[in-house]
Design a protein that fits this description.
With 184 residues, the chain is of the alpha+beta class. The chain has three domains: 62 residues, no CATH class; 48 residues, no CATH class; 63 residues. The chain has a three-stranded antiparallel β-sheet, with no helix packed on it.
Length: 184
């Protein structure tokens, strides 16, 4: 006779084994009596499907959701959560990762950015945008362009002209962003 073992805490099906015969009770009753250990039953569990587990509770087997080990994301924070317990996934979680967002928020169908982002950095004030703009201008090679312009004097200087044009674009992008987002 088979017995079906289950976890004493969660009720989750653990496996099947052969029940042992109780020799004393079998002799006393004249029929086969089997030993059924704690956290075991002679009732077979239902067959669990994908993302399901068979659980024994209240004298019967049922199928419950099982997403343990799977990653979900918190709708309010975008933080990853690894499911650890049996049962349905919380409605506060979604299975879609908020890739590339600084402050993700779930809008009911997709992730949206809730932070104000300029040039791949979170900003809150005009000073933040100005700081990013200054770094971008410096990265253009501002010092080198200034040096070459000093050397060229009143003569044309292609590197200075290229730098000035690129700087104008960066400054305009910053100003447009500041205005569009009413930053002070």
């Amino acid at each position: 006779m088979n017995i079906y073992r289950y976890d004493g805490t969660t009720g989750e099906y653990l496996g099947t084994s052969e029940a042992r015969l109780d020799p004393l009770e079998s002799q006393n009753t004249g029929k086969d009596v089997y030993l059924i250990p704690a956290n075991a039953t002679t009732d077979a569990p239902a067959t669990a499907g994908e993302n399901q587990a068979a659980v024994y509770s209240g004298g019967k087997w049922s199928l419950v959701d099982d997403y343990r080990g799977q990653k979900y994301w918190n709708k309010d924070t975008g933080a990853v959560v690894t499911i650890e317990d049996l049962g349905a996934v919380s409605t506060d979680l979604v299975s879609i990762a908020p890739d590339g967002l600084f402050a993700p928020k779930w809008d009911g169908t997709q992730w949206t950015e809730s932070a104000l982002v300029y040039n791949s950095q979170v900003v809150a004030t005009k000073a933040d945008v100005d700081r990013i703009t200054a770094v971008r201008i410096a990265a253009l090679g501002e010092e080198k362009a200034k040096t070459e312009k000093l050397i060229a004097g009143t003569d044309a200087c292609a590197s200075w002209d290229t730098f000035v044009a690129a700087r104008a674009v960066i400054l305009q992008e910053g100003e447009t962003f500041i205005t569009a987002n009413s930053l002070t």
